[in-house]
């Protein structure tokens, strides 16, 4: 009987962990898509921020930032974040969301 309980526990735990991971992915994808849409809409109205050389140069730094959960902050990413915030002060996003949006384009 203890083996059945143990198997049941691990099965339920596995399902819960899978649901949490997929929820995180969906939430992250939703945030990135919404932010990217905001950046595209705003940049089309002014000048193309996403296609700007400063932002394009920050892709590698953005990838490092996202991969290390913010521990690695490159100079190109810092410059791009300042550039985006200066061009679009209405965008309310943290550094991680902006880095993900940079990677999405």
Could you name the key traits of this structure?
single chain, 105 residues, mainly alpha, 5 helices, CHP02448
Please describe what this structure looks like:
There is one protein chain. This protein is mostly helical. The chain has a domain of 53 residues. 76% of the residues lie in helices and 0% in strands. The chain contains 5 helices and no strands. The longest helix is centred in the first third of the chain and has 44 residues.
How many E strands? Answer: 0
Strand content: under 5%
As an assembly, this protein is single chain
Q: Determine the number of helices (DSSP H or I, runs of at least 4 residues).
A: 5
Shape: globular
What's the pLDDT, averaged over the residues? 73
Low-confidence stretches: 19-24, 42-47
Rg over CA atoms, rounded to whole Å, is: 19 Å
Q: Quote the distance from N terminus to C terminus.
A: 54 Å
Determine the structural class based on helices, strands and strand pairing: mainly alpha
What is the share of helical residues? over 70%
Helices and strands, in order, run as: HHHHH
Signal peptide: 1-21
Keywords: Signal
Brief summary:
The chain is mainly α and 105 residues long. Helix content is 76%, strand content 0%.
Helix and strand arrangement:
Layout: H1 2-45, H2 53-56, H3 59-67, H4 75-87, H5 95-104
């Amino acid at each position: 009987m203890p083996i059945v309980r143990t198997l049941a526990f691990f099965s339920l735990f596995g399902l819960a962990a899978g649901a949490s991971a997929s929820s995180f992915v969906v939430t992250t994808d939703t945030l990135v898509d919404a932010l990217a849409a905001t950046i595209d809409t705003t940049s089309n109205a002014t000048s193309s921020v996403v296609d700007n050389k400063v932002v394009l140069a920050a892709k590698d730094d953005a990838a490092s930032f996202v991969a290390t959960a913010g521990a690695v902050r490159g100079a190109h990413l810092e410059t791009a974040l300042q550039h985006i915030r200066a061009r679009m002060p209405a965008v309310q996003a943290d550094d991680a969301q902006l880095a993900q949006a940079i990677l999405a384009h």
